[in-house]
């Protein structure tokens, strides 16, 4: 895989979540004693969420073991994105996407509302990327994000 390969922004016009009372959206942001090893991209509840890579949707993933109404997807890259694994949280999967092969920009779900769990938070999707098994900052890889 070319290390310069880019991925698509999963949210049309989505931006990096700015700091609110729950923290900032950038990779490595503080979460109290922990760190944020993903990137938050602003999304309106219900907004279409797009696959950032070419690959196969492996399974649903759950950000909270004790609150299964929040869901996400695990995508395994292929083609130009071989070696990339994407986890994306806070979307309701589109019907029939599990085990589906997807291309960059293809709709995979709709953004969920987070304000019921985190009052006052900026609604967003959370994306984590592993490249050859190593967690990396998604932002430098994403086209058209600010
Ligand atoms: Zn996040």
TrEMBL record:
Keywords: Disulfide bond, Metal-binding, Signal, Zinc. Pfam families: Peptidase_M23 (PF01551). Residues 35-138 form the M23ase beta-sheet core domain. InterPro entries: Dup_hybrid_motif, LECT2, M23ase_b-sheet_dom. Signal peptide: none annotated. Coiled coil: none annotated. The keyword Signal applies. Belongs to the LECT2/MIM-1 family. This is Peptidoglycan DD-metalloendopeptidase family protein. It comes from Aliikangiella maris. The lineage of its organism: Bacteria, Pseudomonadati, Pseudomonadota, Gammaproteobacteria, Oceanospirillales.
